[in-house]
Amino acid sequence: MRLFEKMLRLFRLIFFSILLFSGVSAVLLVGIFFLALNDLPRVPEPLSRIIETPPTEMIAATGERILIIGGRDAVPLNRVSPVFLQAVIATEDHRFWDHHGINKIRMLKAIWVTLFEPGKIQGASTITQQLSKNLFFSFKRSYVRKFQELFVALQIESQYSKREILEAYVNQIPFGVGALGIEQASRTFWDKSAIDLNLGEAALLAGLPKSPTRYNPYLYFERAKARQRTVLQRMVDVGYIAQEQADEAFTDELKLRQKPAGARTGSYYLDMVIKHLEERYGPEIVYHGGLKITTTLDPQLQSLAVAALQKGLKDLDIKLGPPSGSETIRPQGAIVVVETTTGAVKALAGGRDYFESEYNRAIQNHRLPGSGFKPFLYYTAFEKTGLNPATVFVDQPVVIPIAGAKDWAPQNFEQRFEGPIILKKAFTDSINTIAAQLVERVGPQGVIQTARRCGIHSRLAPVYSVALGTSGVSPLEMASSFSVFASGGIYHEPFWISRVEDAYGRIIEEHIVSGEKVLDKSIVYQVVDMMRGVIDEGTGRVIRRMGFDLPAAGKTGTSDGYKDAWFTGFTPTLSTSVWVGYDRDINLRTSYGGGFTGSRAAAPIWADFMLKATEGEPKREFPIPDDIRFEQVDPVSGCRAGASTQGSIRVALRKGQIVCEQDTTKIIPPD
Amino acid sequence: MDWAEPKNTREWVVRIFSLRLMLMILMIFGILISELRFDWMEQVLGAFLVKTNSLRPESGTIWEINRQTETARKTLEQIVTDRQASQREARSAGSFTEISANLAADQGVMLSPDDFRRLYLELPTSIAQEIISPLDILKIFSENRFARTYFEKQGNGLQVYFLDPENRVLQRMLIGADLLDLMDQSEHDVEGNLDGFSKFKNRIYPADQFLNALESLPEDSRRNVLPQPERLLLAGGRIVRVGISDETVSGNIELGFEIKVGASSRVVFIPGREWAVWQIRAKLEGKKIDGAPFPDSKS
């Protein structure tokens, strides 16, 4: 009997303890309630107010809508596929229709798991709680915030019907890839309206809100499929569908909408546009103003540019071999495409993957262009000194004394000297000693002034070596400045926004496509003719080997120690600059020591892109000014070529510029 | 109520199964079960919160977005209103100088070809010719692609772009600050007399001497010295003196006509073509006509 009494005592103790605990809890709860009530937010009335923010839209030059920032394409519940609603309810809150804002059983279970299963955390938020959290609270976690979230959920449940709550919920959940709400998500991922979703599509979408980035089907399709499987299984467990339906939906082929590479948040191009707008109008207007921004982006060219850059960098990874030691740093790259007749930036990629690195190397990176800067030097020399492409210089060791500093003795890339050679050949073969002789004649300021006229805004050091590209510039500057050569000396400021309108279509800003004549068109043509030589028979001939046969001109560039590889070139309509290199101070060399020049690393990317970008285009020649004539000359003597001349070269000459006859050799010695 | 501990098992059983305890347990379970079944606590709390909703602050993400939206809407409205106002002002402007005066440094306005034509036709022939020849204007107007004109400040001058529907510049022209000043002066009479303007110093002639000299010039020269005689007629009063400026602006020399109206006098400025003014000045100074333009001319 004593044992029985002992048990009764124990039972009594437990009973009163529970009673006491419950009492204290109730008091605490009341306290917390009033504490949380202090700054509990007001719930908007009606709930549909949450969708009143107008979206800012970005439109491609082709008229295609490429991005929506903020705002939502809200749809009533009867315009949403029932299977999607079932999928969401089964996954997020299967007792949604029964509870009053909180699922007490699930909550107790979650508390149990959190307290007694270390390392595990179980969520118990109902759809209403999630709605409350998304509408009013930040993602900062605190107990008071958790209670506030819960209380607001209770209010929402008391104030609105279940259908209103569900409608608000599905219209505001983020699905990733910039899609907010089911209608946007449905259009973004499947290119259809939310009412038309089938079971497989609905299940995949319903799985995304848990972690839109982690389950992004464009990036991690397998993960997204696994999540779809979980959702389908939940629907079976809850009784919405049969196992066979789930299996069938899982095996159904999913046709994700093919999105252009630039048309997503996380695109270097759109990032640049958004930053520009933020600087001009402020973030509030960009994200909440409901602007309609017409960009200059050509989605097709953008896709091609991104693909060419990524492929080129992958090929380079293979050629460079595995990274040494534990280093996993890979070379980066950038590509910019500018329309030569307007300055419109048609495509831009600032790295191999935006999600790996948001640093936009196309505009923020100022890297040494190496010989890519020589067109400015040759133009300056032709303009200031009257030299022409047939003028002969001697390729030999050059030492240029510099007051107060060490003499400058530039070396040729090939480490050998050609002797007498005409300027066109010196340009196409990128001979540094001759470039040095030219810059000595015209002075670094002359070269800098020409570069400035063409739109190079970066800081350029006023030293002789500036002519060999020893001051950093961005790929955007290179593409834009080379377009001056493509357009016969007309500079168009690069731009990426054509028009900005407000939500009612009233124009706020529009770009005026205005060109300014900055260079002489005849001299420009002479330089362009030499730049054509680079592609036809010079350092960029890999481009012809890859099958690109349209008239094009360009220049390779490699900085000292193979740290930067460039190719910037143009057709009469498109100017494209490609840069490849490491973010850190690392050389583009294989483990065997072989280096990657602009010709090996950047030109193939340029060719790959331009081949596809100009596919089907007719051959368009660069317009030849009236005072230009052509002569075949001997590359060594610069004299008119005769029948017996070996390897004669065609040069473009301006009115009054003459070449010597075959038997005379005129060599201009270095000063 | 007996608070002492039961002394034996029987007493334990009696107390456990006492009506009071049973009722209490039943009540507790009743409350718990009814809460689980009917969610009355949530409903009570919810109802209370609905009642006090209007007393609570508009805080939290959604309200913040709402405020930002409102600010953005107001700012945009202001931008659009300003833009529309400057468009309206430009459309109703009577001259290029008026457009220039109303434009801020970073601002531009878009006008229709008809607006441009109207402003151009308002100009004195000599200045109009200087900005862009009527033939060039005709050429631009006959282009199918010509859609709009865009005006923007450039320094103190006014840059005018002729645009196609895609905003590509077909042609542009710059109306320099000097020319704008000239237009401004030619549009406005100034109270006072010629002695108040240093540019006419030593080149002020009695009206009859000037008019006689003008009369002696060939018809073409007369028209180019005084391209807008109607402005003098409109001014009323009597011309007493005429001054010739010592500056040449874009091929024009300004003439100042001092007009006496009652007791007061005012000056009317009219630009004349440089070559013709030079002829009348030579006449006035009794020089031969075949000479160089004034040495201090700046164009």
Written description of the protein model:
- The complex is a heterodimer of chains A (671) and B (299).
- The relative contact order of chain A is 0.09.
- In chain A, α8 (199-207) crosses α9 (221-238) and α14 (374-385) crosses α19 (521-536).
- Chain A is built from 21 helices and 20 strands.
- Among the domains of chain A are: 1-38; 74-251, Orthogonal Bundle (Penicillin binding protein transpeptidase fold); 359-485 and 519-589 and 596-613, DD-peptidase/beta-lactamase superfamily (Beta-lactamase), CATH 3.40.710.
- The radius of gyration of chain A is 34 Å and the shape is elongated.
- By secondary structure, chain A is of the alpha+beta class.
- Chain A starts with a helix and ends in a 17-residue tail after the last strand.
- Chain B has 3 domains: 9-49, no CATH class; 65-178, no CATH class; 189-284, no CATH class.
- Chain B has 13 helices and 9 strands.
- In chain B, β8 (252-261) and β9 (264-273) form a beta hairpin.
- Mean pLDDT of chain B is 85; it is low at 291-299.
- Chains A and B meet through α1, α4, α5, α12 and β14 of A and α1, α3 and α4 of B.
Number of structurally distinct domains of chain B: 3
Ends apart, CA distance between termini of chain A: 122 Å
What oligomeric state do these chains adopt? Answer: heterodimer
> Could you tell me which chain pair has the largest interface and how many residues each side has?
A-B, 57 and 46 residues
Structural class of chain B: alpha+beta
Estimated radius of gyration of chain A? 34 Å
Helix content of chain A: 40-55%
Individual helix count of chain A: 21
Low-confidence stretches of chain B: 291-299
Topology as H/E string of chain B?
HHHHHEHHHEEEHEEHHHEEEH
From the N-terminal CA to the C-terminal CA of chain B, the straight-line distance is 117 Å
CATH superfamily of the domain at 359-485 and 519-589 and 596-613 in chain A: DD-peptidase/beta-lactamase superfamily
Structural class estimated from helices and strands of chain A: alpha+beta
What's the rounded overall pLDDT mean of chain B?
Answer: 85
Strand order of the largest sheet of chain B: 5-9-8-7-6
**Beta-strand residue percentage of chain B:** 15-25%
Overall mean pLDDT of chain A stands at 89
Largest sheet of chain B: 5 strands, antiparallel
| Number of β-strand runs of chain A | 20
